[in-house]
Design brief:
12% strand; Rossmann fold; 711 residues; 6-stranded parallel β-sheet; alpha/beta; Arc Repressor Mutant, subunit A
Length: 711
C-alpha cells in the first residue's frame, strides 16, 4: 500500500516525496483507520484523502461546504487524470443521475457533496448501495458552534459513523485551537481517530499590521502598487457598503477589482468569484462571506481594511494567500474605530452571555496581536498551541522592530480626562479637551474649566488616538455601547492612575519608502527571466482558455518557477518538475518545452550579438559607429549597451553622450512612472527625443543602483 501511494503521488500529482505528516496520514486511512488532520492552508491536506481514495477500492466521499470549491477541485483533479465528480444544485437531473450511476458502478475515485445533500435519506440510501473507500470531512472546524464558520449541518455528520462504521473517516481543517479540536472529536465521534497536528506556521506569509491613517484606501493602493501590481489578492472590509466603495475606487485607479458580499445577487457573486478563480490579477473586495475553501494557489496578498473579530478569523482569512508556498503578504490597516465598532456589534448581538464572553476573549486576543511589540508569528502560533522558538524574521515587528515609550503620564492624563468629563464622551471629544481646543461644545459643558483642559499638548491628534486605542486594547478603557461609543474606566486602570503601574506603549514609526522589485509569482523576476516568465504564463493561459479552466489548474506558479530554474529540454527532464504528473506531461509537456526552447534560442542569439557590440565598444567605438559597422539601428546598439550596464560591464556615462542634466531628467521621469518600469510614457514625455535604447540604458543603471543599495 505504501509503495502504491507513493506511485500515485508521483505519477498522478507530479510530486517526488510526501511532506510530513502526509505519509503517516495516508497510511492510516488506507489501512482503514480514522484521522483528524490539522495542517496549515497550502500544506497539502487534500492529498491526505485524495490519494487513499484512489488507492482504496470504492469511491471517496468528500463533504465540502461550498459549491465553488467542489467544482474547482473536481476540475483540477480531472486535469491530473483522476476520476472525480460532484453532486450539487448546479447539475441538471440527467447529469446528476449520470454521476449517481457512476458512483454505484464504482467508476469514480472521488465524489464531492455538500453536507445538506449528504444528510438526506435518499442520498444515505444511495451510499448504502455504493462501494465506499472513505469519508473526508473538509473544513471540519465548521462543526464548532464557537467558531467563525459554524455550519449547523456539520453537527449531524456523526451519522456517517453510525450508518457506515466500517468506512474510514478523515476530518481536516487548517483552523482549530484546542477547544475546537475537542469539539470536532466529540461531535464527529472521532474518539478513536489518530490526531495529526502539523503546526500552523505559514512561513511564506509576511504578516504586517499598520496603523490606519486618514485615507486607508490610499494606504492600500500604495501597498498593492509597490508589492503586488497585477497580481491576485483579496481585500476584506467589515461592511457591504465599504466593500462596494473600495472595489469601485480601486477599479477607478486602474486595478481589476470586484466586490463580493452576501447582499449582491447570486449571479453577480458567481460571476465575480468565477473571474477571480479563472483570470489572473483579479482583486476581490469582500466581507467574510467570501473565501472559505477557495482553492486558488496564486493569491499573492490578503489585505484587511478592518480588524477581524478573532485570531481564528484572521488566520483563516490570511491563509488564503500563498497556498502555492511562494512568498505572499498578509497586510492589515486597523484603527481605534474598529475596536469601538466590533465591541458595539458584539454587545448588540442576540447571543447569550456565555457566547458573548467567549467572543470578548477572542476580540481581546486579536487586539493583543495587533498591539504587541514582539514577533507576530510567535504570538499567532502560540494562540493555537503551536510554538516557534525564535522570532520569525518575516513579520513587520521582526523586520522593523517598533519603538516603545513610557506612556505612563500620557495614560494618566487620558484616563483622568475620561473621569473628569463624566465618562460620557467619545475619543474625538476627549482629545479636544486634552489639546485645549476652543470649541463651543466644550464651553457649553464647562469642560474648558477642568484641570485636564489643555494638559495634553505634548502630543498631536494622531498620537492621542494611538494612546486611546492602545488603552482600550489593554482593557484600561471600555466602550460604553449604550453611551454611543463613550469611553469609561475599568477596574484595571486603577493601578495606573495611582502611579503603581508603568505603561509602555508602541510608538508607530513610518518606514522609509524604498524602491522594491515587483514580485512575480512571489519572487523577484527581472530581465530575460521576466520575458520567459511571461511566455510561460501566456502558454498556460492559452491552454486554460482552450479547456475552460483556471490557469493554475494547468500548472501552479511554483511549477512554472521551477521550470524557469531548471530549464528542462526533454520530456523526461520535465517529468521531474514538481506538479508535472503523467497526464499533464502527456497533455502539456511539448507545449511548455517549446516555450523553453524558443527562449533558450533567443537568449543565445541575444547573448552573441550583445557580446559583439560590447567588443566594438571596448575598442573605443561609439554607438553610431557600431550601428554603422554592424548594419543595425542605433536604438538596437543602445539596447545592447543597456544589457551590459545591467551586468555591470559598462558605465552609463560611457555608453551615452548626454549631459548629466539630461541623464538626471530621464532618470526622474522613469522613477515617476511606476518606479522605472514603464518606458512609453517617458518616451512620449520627451517627444521621442531620446530613443527607447537610451531610455533602457538609464533604466538599467537605475536597476543597478537599487541592487547595489540592497546588497
Amino acid at each position: 500500500m505504501e509503495q502504491q501511494a507513493l506511485q500515485v503521488l508521483r505519477t498522478v500529482f507530479g510530486y517526488e516525496s510526501f511532506r510530513p505528516p502526509q505519509e503517516q496520514v495516508i497510511d492510516t486511512v488506507i489501512r482503514g483507520g480514522d484521522a483528524l488532520v490539522l495542517m496549515p492552508t497550502g500544506g497539502g491536506k487534500s492529498l491526505c484523502y485524495q490519494i487513499p481514495a484512489i488507492v482504496r477500492p470504492g469511491t471517496g466521499i468528500v463533504v465540502s461546504p461550498l459549491i465553488a470549491l467542489m467544482q474547482d477541485q473536481v476540475a483540477a483533479l480531472r486535469q491530473s487524470g483522476v476520476r472525480a465528480a460532484f453532486l450539487n444544485s448546479t447539475l441538471g437531473a440527467a447529469a446528476a443521475r449520470a454521476v449517481e450511476e457512476a458512483l454505484l458502478a464504482g467508476e469514480l475515485d472521488l465524489l464531492y457533496v455538500a453536507p445538506e445533500r449528504l444528510l438526506t435519506g435518499r442520498f444515505l440510501d444511495l451510499l448504502a448501495r455504493a462501494p465506499l473507500a472513505l469519508f473526508a470531512i473538509d473544513e471540519a472546524h465548521c462543526v464548532s458552534q464557537w467558531g467563525h464558520d459554524f455550519r449547523p449541518e456539520y453537527i449531524q455528520l456523526s451519522v456517517l459513523h453510525e450508518r457506515f462504521p466500517a468506512v474510514p473517516r478523515i476530518a481536516l481543517t487548517a483552523t482549530a485551537d484546542e477547544p475546537t479540536r475537542r469539539e470536532i472529536i466529540a461531535r464527529l465521534q472521532l474518539e478513536q481517530a489518530q490526531v495529526f497536528l502539523n503546526g500552523f506556521d505559514r512561513p511564506n506569509i509576511r504578516y504586517r499590521i499598520v496603523e490606519r491613517g486618514s485615507n486607508a484606501r490610499e494606504q492600500l493602493l500604495r501597498f498593492i502598487r509597490a508589492e503586488h501590481d497585477g497580481e491576485a489578492g483579496i481585500v476584506y472590509c467589515l461592511s457591504r457598503k465599504r466593500v462596494e466603495e473600495v472595489a469601485h475606487w480601486l477599479a477607478e485607479q486602474g486595478l481589476t477589482a470586484l466586490p463580493y458580499h452576501a447582499g449582491l445577487p447570486a449571479e453577480t457573486r458567481r460571476v465575480h468569484q468565477e473571474r477571480f478563480l479563472r483570470e489572473e490579477g483579479v482583486i476581490i473586495v469582500a466581507t467574510i462571506a467570501f473565501g472559505m475553501g477557495i482553492d486558488k494557489p496564486d493569491v499573492r496578498f490578503v489585505a484587511h481594511l478592518n480588524l477581524p473579530k478573532s485570531v481564528e478569523a484572521y488566520y483563516q482569512e490570511t491563509g488564503r494567500a500563498g497556498r502555492d508556498g511562494l512568498p505572499a503578504d498578509a497586510w492589515m490597516a486597523y484603527g481605534l474605530q474598529d475596536v469601538i465598532t466590533l465591541r458595539q456589534m458584539l454587545a448588540q448581538s442576540e447571543a447569550d452571555e456565555s457566547h458573548k464572553r467567549v467572543e470578548h476573549h477572542k476580540l481581546d486576543a486579536m487586539l493583543g496581536l495587533c498591539e504587541l511589540t514582539s514577533c507576530r508569528r510567535q504570538a499567532l502560533l502560540r494562540y493555537f498551541g503551536d510554538h516557534l522558538h525564535e522570532p520569525c524574521g518575516n513579520c513587520d515587528t521582526c523586520l522593523e522592530p517598533p519603538q516603545t515609550w513610557d506612556a505612563t503620564v500620557a495614560a494618566q492624563k487620558a484616563l483622568s480626562c475620561v473621569h473628569r468629563t463624566g465618562q460620557r464622551f467619545g475619543v474625538n471629544y476627549l482629545i479636544d479637551v486634552l489639546l485645549g481646543k476652543d470649541d463651543e461644545r466644550l464651553r457649553r459643558f464647562g469642560h474648558h474649566q477642568l484641570s485636564v483642559f489643555g494638559i495634553g499638548q505634548e502630543l498631536n491628534v494622531n498620537e492621542w488616538r494611538g494612546v486611546f486605542r492602545q488603552l482600550i486594547a489593554r482593557g484600561l478603557l471600555a466602550v460604553d455601547i449604550e453611551g454611543h461609543g463613550a469611553l469609561r474606566l475599568t477596574e484595571r486602570c486603577r493601578p495606573v492612575l495611582r502611579g503603581e503601574e508603568t505603561v509602555l506603549l508602541r510608538r508607530e514609526i513610518k518606514a522609509a519608502k524604498a524602491p522594491r522589485n515587483r514580485r512575480k509569482g512571489g519572487a523577484a523576476v527581472a530581465g530575460s527571466d521576466e520575458a520567459l516568465w511571461e511566455a510561460l504564463r501566456a502558454q498556460r493561459r492559452l491552454l486554460a482558455e482552450e479547456q475552460g479552466v483556471a490557469p493554475y489548474m494547468i500548472f501552479h506558479d511554483a511549477t512554472l518557477m521551477e521550470m524557469m530554474a531548471a530549464r528542462p529540454t526533454t520530456l523526461a527532464a520535465l517529468a521531474h518538475i514538481s506538479g508535472v504528473g503523467t497526464r499533464k506531461l502527456e497533455a502539456y509537456g511539448e507545449a511548455f518545452l517549446a516555450v523553453l526552447q524558443q527562449h533558450a534560442d533567443a537568449e543565445t542569439e541575444r547573448s552573441d550579438t550583445v557580446e559583439d557590440t560590447l567588443q566594438l565598444f571596448r575598442r573605443g567605438m561609439h554607438a553610431e559607429a557600431i550601428a554603422h559597422r554592424r548594419g543595425l539601428t542605433v536604438d538596437t546598439i543602445h539596447s545592447h549597451l543597456a544589457t551590459a550596464i545591467a551586468r555591470g560591464q559598462v558605465e552609463l556615462n560611457d555608453a551615452l553622450g548626454l549631459a548629466q542634466a539630461e541623464v538626471n531628467a530621464i532618470a526622474d521621469a522613469l522613477l515617476a512612472q511606476d518606479g522605472g518600469k514603464r518606458l512609453k510614457p517617458v518616451y512620449e514625455m520627451f517627444d521621442g527625443r531620446y530613443g527607447y535604447g537610451v531610455l533602457r540604458c538609464v533604466q538599467a543603471a537605475l536597476g543597478r543602483e537599487i541592487q547595489d543599495a540592497r546588497e
